[in-house]
Amino acid sequence: MCLFSQADCWVVIGMMHSVVESGADESPGKSAVRASASTDVAILVIGRDDRSRGELGDFLAGHGYRVLEACDRAAMVSVLQDRSVDMIILNDPSVYDGLGLCRELAVGGKAPIVMLADCEDAMDRIIALEVGADEVLARPFNARELLARVRSLLRRAGPVAAEVRPRVLDFAGWRLHEETRVLRSPAGHTMQLAASEYALLRVFLTSPSTIVDAGVVSAALGIDFESCQANFRTSVCRLRRKLGKDRSGSDLLRTVHGRGYVLEGSHASPV
Fold first, then answer.
1. Which of 93, 99, 110, 185 is 20 to 30 A (C-alpha) from 139?
2. How far apart are CA 153 and CA 133, in angstroms?
3. Could you tell me if 110 and 157 are in contact, meaning their C-beta atoms sit under 8 angstroms apart?
C-alpha cells in the first residue's frame, strides 16, 4: 500500500522511476544518497518498512534533497555519528512506536522532526508534539502538504542548521571531521590530528593529485617559507605514519623524489 494519498501515488511512482535509473544505493538501513541532490539539505528518513521508506526517500530526492535512510535505532545512530542532517522524518505506522525515538532525537539534536503515523486521534498528535515532534501528519497524507511542511520547517531552521553543521570530507576511504580534526580510517579506527597535521592534510586535499612541497604549503597557509621548510618533512612523516598504506601496500602519502609529495586518492568529497 502506498503511504501517500491515492492521487499522489502516481506522482511518486513517476519520480521513483527517474531516481532508480540514477543508480542509488538501495541497501536497507545504510546511509545513502538516493539521487543527485540539487541542494546541500540532508534529510534522514527512519522507518522499518523498506518499501514505504523507499517511496518517501524517492519522493524527497525527486525534489532535490539528499536523502539518508535508517531502518531502526541502531542504523539511525550510525548515520548521525558520521554526519549532520537538516531534518529527520520518522515514518512509522504506530505513533507510539515512534515516540521514544522522537523524544531521544529532540533532546540530542537541533534538526526539526516530522512524524508520519496512523494517528487519526487528536490526542495522539498532541502527545507526539509534546515529546518533540515539530510536525505530525496522519497517514495516508498528501504529498504536496508534506513537501510544503518540509520546506516551511527548513526555512525556519535553515540558518541554525547551516551554522552548526560540521564539515566532513571523504578521501581514499578515509573520513576527516574538520570541526574536531578527527580522522577515521577505512577500518573504522579514529585518531586525533594535531593542528599542524590537520593543516598539512587540508593542503593535500585541496590540491588533489598535485605534488606538494614546502613552497606550496607556505603559500597555502600564509606562513614564512623558511620556518615552513624547516618543519615540512617532519610533519609529512608524522602524517604518513597515521595514514599508513593503501590497499596495494604502497604509502598513501607518496614521495616524488626531488620534488615533494602526493596524497593518493586525494579527491575529497564533502559529506
1. 110
2. 11
3. yes
Instruction: Please give the Cα distance from 271 to 267 (Å, whole number).
Output: 13
Q: Where are the alpha helices (DSSP H) in the chain?
A: 6-20, 50-62, 73-82, 95-108, 122-131, 143-164, 195-205, 214-221, 225-243
CA distance 201 to 239: 8
Predicted model pTM: 0.50
Tens of pLDDT along 114-138?
A: 998 877 667 777 778 877 889 988 8
Q: How far is CA 191 from CA 19, 69, 224, 246, in A?
A: 37, 27, 28, 17
CA distance 169 to 264: 15
Q: Where do the domains of the chain lie, and which CATH numbers do they carry?
A: 6-164 (3.40.50.2300), 168-270 (1.10.10.10)
pLDDT digits (tens, 9 = 90+) for 166-183: 578 888 888 988 777 889
- Given this model, what pLDDT does residue 195 score? 79
Q: What's the chain's Rg over C-alpha atoms?
A: 22
The H-or-E segment that residue 90 falls in is strand 87-91
Closest-CA residue to 43 (of 139, 142, 161, 140): 161
Q: Which helix (H) or strand (E) holds 192?
A: strand 190-192
